[in-house]
Amino acid sequence: MTRIDGRTPEQLRPVTIHRGWSKHAEGSVLISCGDTRVLCTASVTEGVPRWRKGSGEGWVTAEYSMLPRATNTRGDRESVRGKIGGRTHEISRLIGRSLRAVIDYKALGENTIVLDCDVLQADGGTRTTAVTGAYVALADAIAWAQAKKLVKAGRKPLTGTVAAVSVGIVDGTPLLDLRYEEDVRAETDMNVVCTGDGRFVEVQGTAEAEPFDRKELNALLDLATGGCADLALLQRQALDTTL
Amino acid sequence: MTRIDGRTPEQLRPVTIHRGWSKHAEGSVLISCGDTRVLCTASVTEGVPRWRKGSGEGWVTAEYSMLPRATNTRGDRESVRGKIGGRTHEISRLIGRSLRAVIDYKALGENTIVLDCDVLQADGGTRTTAVTGAYVALADAIAWAQAKKLVKAGRKPLTGTVAAVSVGIVDGTPLLDLRYEEDVRAETDMNVVCTGDGRFVEVQGTAEAEPFDRKELNALLDLATGGCADLALLQRQALDTTL
Amino acid sequence: MTRIDGRTPEQLRPVTIHRGWSKHAEGSVLISCGDTRVLCTASVTEGVPRWRKGSGEGWVTAEYSMLPRATNTRGDRESVRGKIGGRTHEISRLIGRSLRAVIDYKALGENTIVLDCDVLQADGGTRTTAVTGAYVALADAIAWAQAKKLVKAGRKPLTGTVAAVSVGIVDGTPLLDLRYEEDVRAETDMNVVCTGDGRFVEVQGTAEAEPFDRKELNALLDLATGGCADLALLQRQALDTTL
Amino acid sequence: MTRIDGRTPEQLRPVTIHRGWSKHAEGSVLISCGDTRVLCTASVTEGVPRWRKGSGEGWVTAEYSMLPRATNTRGDRESVRGKIGGRTHEISRLIGRSLRAVIDYKALGENTIVLDCDVLQADGGTRTTAVTGAYVALADAIAWAQAKKLVKAGRKPLTGTVAAVSVGIVDGTPLLDLRYEEDVRAETDMNVVCTGDGRFVEVQGTAEAEPFDRKELNALLDLATGGCADLALLQRQALDTTL
Amino acid sequence: MTRIDGRTPEQLRPVTIHRGWSKHAEGSVLISCGDTRVLCTASVTEGVPRWRKGSGEGWVTAEYSMLPRATNTRGDRESVRGKIGGRTHEISRLIGRSLRAVIDYKALGENTIVLDCDVLQADGGTRTTAVTGAYVALADAIAWAQAKKLVKAGRKPLTGTVAAVSVGIVDGTPLLDLRYEEDVRAETDMNVVCTGDGRFVEVQGTAEAEPFDRKELNALLDLATGGCADLALLQRQALDTTL
Amino acid sequence: MTRIDGRTPEQLRPVTIHRGWSKHAEGSVLISCGDTRVLCTASVTEGVPRWRKGSGEGWVTAEYSMLPRATNTRGDRESVRGKIGGRTHEISRLIGRSLRAVIDYKALGENTIVLDCDVLQADGGTRTTAVTGAYVALADAIAWAQAKKLVKAGRKPLTGTVAAVSVGIVDGTPLLDLRYEEDVRAETDMNVVCTGDGRFVEVQGTAEAEPFDRKELNALLDLATGGCADLALLQRQALDTTL
Predict the structure, then answer these.
(1) pTM for this one?
(2) Which chain C residue is nearest to residue D225, measuring alpha carbons?
(3) Which residues contact E181 (CB under 8 A, 6 or more apart)?
(4) F27 to chain A: nearest residue by CA?
């Protein structure tokens, strides 16, 4: 089995993580996984939503969106249509949950961090790329909040790292990190979010054509945990660089 | 470990499937799993959405909703708020995908079936109960369409059966079919949709508190496949009864 | 003149009033008038809308809705269309006004009761059935509030009872409690809401085809007051039963 | 009983009907009943809504609206709030039904007439004033359509005339044509739409405080039919004048 | 060059300014420039929007709208479409900015004035007519606020006067105050807002067909300043009259 | 007068024009003017909006948007708020008009080009930067359409070039190409769109504080025409480079 871009089944596409891409945001990352390109910005504000006030705990949330011409055919803007589609909602919620899995709300204190993930160019795996990039922007934003003393000295709001990857079965073969051409042909499609220590935050598998059996599920999970481990390494390298 | 209602970890709540509950719909089921009560109606119309016209293929879709006072505290109506929430979108899409997994579009012909799943009373597992009940309403609607000759003689639009159940880890113990009180305390929450032959259509696991490891994931998958097999049996019994 | 279901012109359809249908709501009634089936839930919350705060007076309001497949042909969900239709608004307002006619706001104190009337199956007279059922749910909710001491001891928020019925002229004959087949053929259509002592809360008559004269109006009002008196008796019987 | 403006209980406020107020519309009337001032324009277009195409029948509909500062306190614009309120919907529907009661759809042919009733100044009775004025604009628009041969020679789309008035019980006394100060104090409020030959098109009575009995209802109906007869005369006089 | 209505290129259409047209508003003007007719009402309320509270400064804003049949062809209501069009937003913002140019926020104190400009009949120049009329309504509203002591004694919230006019190049000739028939044929269209002392508040020129050069721009600016001076005189005359 | 970044009053910020930034769009440019960064994509589709069908003429339109954290403080997404703000509408319309000024609709044929201008980072002058960048993307898209034979051989849909710049008066000094810090302090703010031959397409001047006189207006127009000429040169250089 040869993949269209010559990768092996368990190989990621080339990944670049450009920190500090925006001058305004407290954390900002332009991440690319192959031709998928997502701008992730983290905005820190003091205070929390009303339902959380007085709890002493912080909040982290995310909003995902795609530029109209990020894709091969131009899509309508959701602002013009006047409502957010189900897919956008679903992905925004997934990103938020994934990041909150590595947040200690008490340590964060009553601060809110919003992650905006805007897909500038799409070629498969936009939601997983968004999670992976947003984590890095979040880490930078938290470092900023610590430097500004918004977070109390000695507190560590981040309890771990998180990254995500897509896997799928194409022509009967389990593959890591699907490009768009692979994604549309996949019989099964799965998005997996893992922490840096190899545990699962989200497992979302969907049979697009044929239902999948336990053995296939296991093969996909193996690929995904490997891919997430590779991404965790790239995140660490990016964050170790001085801005 | 004793559960609040005395069940064992791998035991479903009592299930009732009342077919033909509505006089207007081509298929209609009032399903209850414990205190969760969902009215599922299947509406058949000739023709398909514009993007599918002329394909010779049918379409199946679903809409999920909750009555304002299905829950312990009254929620605002989405019609009054003027937009559908992310959760509602996500669940409607899940139900639609689950049912389409057992549909042969060619055999269905250019007919559309809409499954409306309205939660009349909620006590955990509303989306999985909706899938399980909607399958039965769908089967009745297809039988109706066959009797009316909307489906060509000899064609079988249904390629299998589908049922769904929730599983979760509560206080470290994997449990089947969570009630609301268990659901809010679960560290990990998973919804699993299976076909009658035991394969997976959807696996959606989320770490609510702690990330989960591969062993826990396996335990949850074991519970879920067992629960879905039990539900498949109950669906068959319900459909074998003459209306 | 024989009616399609054999009733005399001044005869109601069979009515059933099932109290306590929902476990969460403070009052809940599944009412059926013939094949029209409405779930009425009453939700009590402490406090009142902002414009009424500090007045010492309570508030009662209602929301009416129809499930998409309550009718013979599936209708779009108002939540999906993103706005509530004129008919829904009009009926919600009618139900609210009807119930408020028997409420002593001072005695209720600063509590709010919302009546949700969801039509599960429609066969004519859904708005009048909703009023009749909602009154019973409201009575149960007020009893609950009294038991919980939300209402001061000795205060009686309910000043009377209220019920509603439709009447119309079909082929020149005035008829009580129209079924859908009768309703669509009616020349004149009237909804009447009466208190238990036979006075009017609402009279809404509309000439669908021919304008109607004073004599016809009088005949319709006679039928309606008779029908409301019958319904008041059934409400009393239902409320006299121990739950 | 003396009324604030010195009228007797059965006396209308001064009415002026200014035809041809707008240069663009096919029919246009600025009507005032006391200080209530409504601009009614009738717009004729060839063709009918999709659901009526090919029927050979026309359609008449209405839209009611109030300028933000028509009232004593400025109200938000419905265009700014992004949705039409229940009251506006209800009144638009009432006006449309009232006018359709005197339309012969076949004679109108496949033409649509939209009546826009915009309240420029409000002092009670805006919906009934709108009906009364809209009828005159409608008559002018139909005359225009006949002159333009949009309506076939010899066909009479108008089968009669229609006018409306409000009545109510204030301090126990039934009164005709309530001003705002009377309206807010009314125990019962009723809007009545009559044809020129004295029959009813709409009767909408609501107990604002106390339920009303049959005798009170009769007194109100007597007042209303008298008021509508007076208005019908004024409409005829206005239409008899050459523009 | 003869204009359709016989005017010279630098001549305004006949202008009438009817103050006190509405009984409810603190300031109200029905202004007509030729057949363009706009009702401008000014509503004064104590207090300011949240973002301005405690500043000691007031606020002035405007909303522009057109009745559906103000134009030759009926337009949809923005309230029915559920959103405000770009053109409406743009004009509302222009009117608000124009009036704020002659307001001393400190002198106004924490009061808000909303100008509603509703076009009852349109024949070109609706936005400029709205500015010119709204200024007069604003002046009356401020006088009212001064009389009511909402504005502190001796403070003058108005720092000058403001008026607006449209100019354009039609068939190569610069013209003042375009009617609709001229406007649609204009190669260049410009709206100019001037203070009474001849300075500019807004200059908005748009090439509808051919780009325009500096010389043409100068000719248009000359015409516009002349027209605004004429309008300023008419405003002064209107305000000098006792209401 | 020294500017914060050391520029002279008549000096542009550094401009970079990166063509072909996106792989999907027919034309795409990432343009930066100082720290203002806008992604402009041009999408070509065959066919035109309904109101233009059969005319043989094409259409060009634009949509402007800002990422939530393009600015110093995060703004709400318009898709989340459910409606597009007045400012966004106004700018989208300005960009569309500016580009259409250099389009020969007949030569374009029945094709539609949509320019999406998404501000990735904002530091003043986002709308003028969008116009300048969108022109380059438009030119590339037209070249693509010519190569694909969507445009007939020998036809030149582009009749010229167009660029835009902001000017303003800060502390009494007219300045070219304002940064955000200058913009917020400007007494007068003007956006000017010019064709490559130095004529005006749009002139939009607004007095933010003091009204401006004719002399100041002339000084601003001089600066703006100079700046647009510089930008036209940079556009030409960018387009002369082989992609």
Answers:
(1) 0.91
(2) C214
(3) E4, E124
(4) A69
- The pLDDT tens digits for F32-74 are 999 999 999 999 999 999 999 999 999 999 999 999 999 999 9
Do D49 and D215 form a contact (C-beta atoms < 8 A)?
no
C121 to chain B: nearest residue by CA?
A: B22
pLDDT for res E119: 98
What CA–CA distance (Å, rounded) separates D183 from D198? 24
CA A202 to chain centre: 11
Helix/strand/coil for E218? helix
pLDDT higher than threshold 90 for residue B169: yes
Phi, psi of E83, rounded to the nearest 5 degrees: -155, 155
Q: What CA–CA distance (Å, rounded) separates E95 from E102?
A: 12
CATH superfamily of E15-78+86-241: GHMP Kinase, N-terminal domain (3.30.230.70)
Predicted confidence (pLDDT) per residue in B41-78, tens digit: 999 999 999 999 999 999 999 999 999 999 999 999 99
Q: At E220, is the pLDDT very low, low, confident or very high (cuts 50, 70, 90)? A: very high
Residue range B14-18: mean pLDDT, rounded: 98
Band of pLDDT at residue C1, cut at 50, 70 and 90? low
Does position B1 have pLDDT exceeding 70, yes or no?
no
List the chains bordering chain F where 3 or more Cβ pairs fall under 8 Å: A, E
Q: Do D74 and E35 lie within an 8 Å CB cutoff?
A: no
Q: C199 to chain D: which residues are within 8 Å by CB?
A: 207, 211-213
Task: Please write the tens of the pLDDT for every residue from D175-222.
Answer: 999 999 999 999 999 999 999 999 999 999 999 888 999 999 999 999
Contacts (Cβ under 8 Å, ≥6 apart) of F215: none
E129-147 burial, b if ≥16 CB within 10 A, otherwise e? Answer: bbbbbbbbbbbbbbbbbbe
3-state secondary structure of D51: helix
> How many CB atoms are closer than 10 A to CB C185?
14
Distance CA A137, CA A127 (A): 15
Q: How far apart are CA B239 and CA B161, in angstroms?
A: 11
CB of D9 within 8 A of CB of D3?
yes
User: How far is residue C23's CA from residue B18's CA, in Å, rounded to a whole number?
Assistant: 19
pLDDT-based confidence at residue D102 (cuts at 50, 70, 90):
very high
Return the H-helix or E-strand segment holding D128. Answer: helix D126-147
CA distance F158 to chain E (A): 14
Q: What angle do CA A28, A33, A38 make, to 5 degrees?
A: 35
Percent of chain D with pLDDT over 70: 100
Q: Does residue A175 contact residue A182 with C-beta atoms inside 8 Å?
A: yes
Going by C-beta distance under 8 Å and a sequence separation of 6 or more, which residues neighbour residue F225? E214, F192, F194, F198
Q: At what angle do helices B126-147 and B86-100 cross, to 10 degrees?
A: 50
Chain A residues with CB under 8 Å of a chain F CB are: 22-25, 28, 35, 39, 41, 43, 45, 63, 65, 67-72, 74, 77-80, 82-84, 88, 114, 116, 118, 120-122
Closest C-alpha among B27, B236, B240 to residue B141: B27
Question: Is pLDDT above 90 for C166?
Answer: yes
